[in-house]
Design goal:
With about 160 residues, this protein is of the alpha+beta class. It has a single domain, classed as Gcn5-related N-acetyltransferase (GNAT) (Aminopeptidase, 3-Layer(aba) Sandwich), CATH 3.40.630. It contains 5 helices and 5 strands; from the N terminus they run E-H-H-E-E-E-H-E-H-H. Helix 1 packs across helix 2. The longest helix has 15 residues. The radius of gyration is 17 Å and the shape is globular. The termini are far apart.
C-alpha cells in the first residue's frame, strides 16, 4: 500500500485517536465502557508523566487505524517490554496490510528499546484477530487469565489496611 503512513501521534491528533478508540469500543461491543475524553488522552500521551504512546495509520492523510502501547517489565527476563493496549483498523480498511504495518512498527520500537517481549490481549471471540496474530508469530497463552480491578473496587482495595 503505497499511500500508507505509520507515524507517532502528536498532541493535535488526540480527537482523532479518541474517535478511533470509540470505533474500537463499538466493534468490541463495549461502547458503554468508554468514559474518558480526548483531553484525558492528550494529558496521558503527552503530559508528565507520559503514560502511553500511540501510532496513527493514515491513508492519504486520513486516519484509519492506531496502536496504543506502554512500557512494562518482565521479572523473569529482567528486561523491559511493551504492552500493546490496543491495535485497531477501521473495518473498511482491513485486509490491506495496515494492521501488519502497525504491529510491525510497535515490534520495531520494542527491538530498538532492547525489550524482551511485546505482549497484548485478544478477546476470546475475536477469531479473525487471533488468526492474524498467530500468522504474525504470536503465541496465545490459554493458560493465563487477565485480572482487573476498577472503579469502586479499586478504591476499596487501595484503602485496605495492611
Amino acid at each position: 500500500m503505497t499511500d500508507l503512513t505509520i507515524r507517532a501521534a502528536e498532541p493535535g491528533d488526540c480527537a482523532t485517536l479518541f474517535h478511533l478508540i470509540k470505533a474500537l469500543a463499538e466493534y468490541e461491543k463495549l461502547s458503554h465502557t468508554v468514559t474518558g475524553s480526548a483531553g484525558d488522552l492528550e494529558k496521558h500521551l503527552f503530559g508528565t508523566p507520559q503514560y502511553a504512546e500511540a501510532l496513527l495509520a493514515e491513508i492519504s492523510g486520513q486516519a484509519v487505524g492506531f496502536a496504543l502501547f506502554f512500557p512494562n517489565y518482565s521479572t523473569f527476563l529482567t528486561q523491559p517490554g511493551i504492552y500493546l493496549e490496543d491495535i485497531f483498523v477501521l473495518p473498511e480498511y482491513r485486509r490491506q496490510g495496515i494492521g501488519k504495518a502497525l504491529l510491525t512498527t510497535v515490534a520495531q520500537i520494542a527491538v530498538a528499546r532492547n525489550c524482551g517481549r511485546l505482549e497484548w490481549s485478544v478477546l476470546d471471540w475475536n477469531q479473525p484477530a487471533q488468526a492474524f496474530y498467530r500468522q504474525m508469530g504470536a503465541s496465545i497463552l490459554d493458560e493465563w487469565r487477565i485480572c482487573r480491578v476498577t472503579g469502586t473496587a479499586l478504591t476499596e482495595l487501595g484503602n485496605l489496611a495492611t
